[in-house]
Structures are given as C-alpha cells and as structure tokens.
Design goal:
By secondary structure, the chain is an alpha/beta fold. It is built from twelve helices and nine strands. It has a six-stranded parallel sheet with strand order 2-1-3-4-8-9, with helices on both faces. Strands 5-6-7 form a three-stranded antiparallel sheet. Strand 5 and strand 6 form a beta hairpin.
Length: 264
C-alpha cells in the first residue's frame, strides 16, 4: 500500500526521469540524510532523478526512523553520525546532503571524516556553529510553527508533532491528495540527538565546502532563521526554492536540478 501511494504521489507531481546518464567520469556519490520525524523514503521522488544522471545515490535511514526499531534509549547524535559514516564507507569526494535536523548530523560527519567529503549541502537545514544544538537553534526561530504543535513525552524520551499541525509545519504546498499519507508517515522523534551540541573545528569541519538550499515558505525552519545561520556560518553558494519544508515532496524535479548543479 505504501509503495502504491508513493507511486501515486509521483504521478500527481508529474514525476519523470527523462535525463540521459552522464559519463562515469562525471558521476559523484550523493548521500542523502533525512530530517526529524521522517525516514529515507522522503527522497524517493528525488533519488531516480539523480541516478538518471549517472550518480551513485545513497539514502540513509537513521536509527529509530522508518522501519528501524532501535530503542530511543540507545539513540544519540553520535549514533546518527556513525550510521552515515558507515554508509559512506571508504568513498571519497562525497556530496553529503542533510535535510532539517540532519544539518547537525552532516556537520559532525564532516568533522570526523573531512577528507572524504567533497561538499556539504544543507537543505532547509540547521547549520550549526561549534557548541550549538538543534534545540538551541530552534529557540531562536520565532517564525517557526513547530512550537504550536510540539508534543514532548519525557517518559519515552520523544517528541512528536500533533496530527492537525503536520501539513502546516512540513508540507503546506503538497498536493492535497497525499495529505493523509504524509500525516500517517510522521512518527515520534528521539529527543537526545536534538539536545546534543555539536563539536566542530575550523581545521576539519571548517575546511569542507558548504552549500545552502533555502526554502522560502518554510514553517518548520523559517527563512529568517535559515538566513541568520548562513550569515553566522557563511557558505560558498546559496540556492532558493519557493517551497515548504519538504521540497522533495512538492517539487522534486526542481530540488534534483539544484542538487545536480551543486554536485558538479
């Protein structure tokens, strides 16, 4: 059923993969890391578009997300980082893409294996400085709608978004036909990684090229916060999409085009 709904969603969005494959010498490894309250299936409309250009594409599923049943008690920011590093393996010149919360994850990965990362791409993502956490950055975001719907469960160490706020927060521009699918896809998020500060250095993290993709109509990580983070941690290139927090749902072809340009 889930596959059928995704196929339907792609059809609604006019999804096609028409591009010709590029020569292998021009191909890259693109590693995609999903954000909070999500999983690797978030990228399903984007992955074929990137592969159609000859790139190796790896969509990482973080512990405790999707079908992974790792106990929240055993999940930390470091466990996210380790899963991404394992997915990268010994590959070099990796284009590492992080959405939302995964901005912290890819930053820590770059700190630990800077020599393997060609470029970090932040998609509507938290772009931290040393010592910052997702929660410390989110507290600065007066324009985010997350706080209206956030549900914290200290007993299970989890955070969730109320069902009546999911579309507003994440996917206000998604086709109405797939709203129920989106709402039912959101699951609780482990709290510990959200509260953990990153440890970053100029010598390692600072040496890696960075790109930021802004989402202009974002109700989760607001555009003003995105712009502030980029001002505080300059990047080499900025792009913008007229989308909500989830352009991989509402405009996958436009997002893929930016990722292809950024990966060159």
């Amino acid at each position: 059923m889930k596959t059928a709904i995704i196929v339907m969603a792609m059809s609604i969005l006019g999804f096609t993969a028409q591009a010709q494959k590029t020569n292998n010498k021009n191909s890259a490894t693109i590693v995609l890391v999903h954000g909070a309250w999500s999983d690797a299936t978030a990228w399903q409309a984007v992955v074929p578009l990137l592969k159609a250009q000859g790139h190796e594409v790896i969509a990482v599923n973080l512990p405790g997300h999707g079908t992974d049943t790792t106990s929240f008690a055993n999940i930390s920011l470091q466990s996210y980082v380790d899963v991404v590093k394992n997915a990268i393996g010994d590959r070099k010149n990796v284009v590492l893409v992080g959405h939302s919360m995964a901005g912290l994850v890819i930053s820590e990965v770059a700190e630990e294996i800077p020599g393997q990362i060609k470029e970090l791409v932040y998609l509507a993502a938290y772009l931290p400085k040393n010592g910052e956490s997702l929660l410390s950055l989110a507290k600065q975001d007066a324009d985010s709608h997350v706080s209206k719907y956030l549900q914290i469960d200290q007993t299970t160490g989890s955070a969730n978004i109320a069902k009546d706020g999911i579309i507003d927060v994440f996917a206000a521009d998604a086709p109405a036909q797939i709203n129920d699918f989106i709402i039912n896809s959101v699951k609780a998020e482990p709290l510990a990684p959200l509260a953990t500060p990153v440890t970053l250095s100029n010598e390692k993290f600072g040496s890696v090229k960075k790109v930021y993709i802004h989402t202009a109509n974002d109700h989760a990580v607001s555009l003003p916060l995105q712009e502030t983070m980029v001002k505080n941690s300059p990047v080499s290139k900025e792009y913008s999409l007229p989308s909500s927090h989830t352009p991989f749902i509402s405009m996958p072809a436009k997002l893929a085009a930016i990722l292809l340009t950024a990966s060159k």
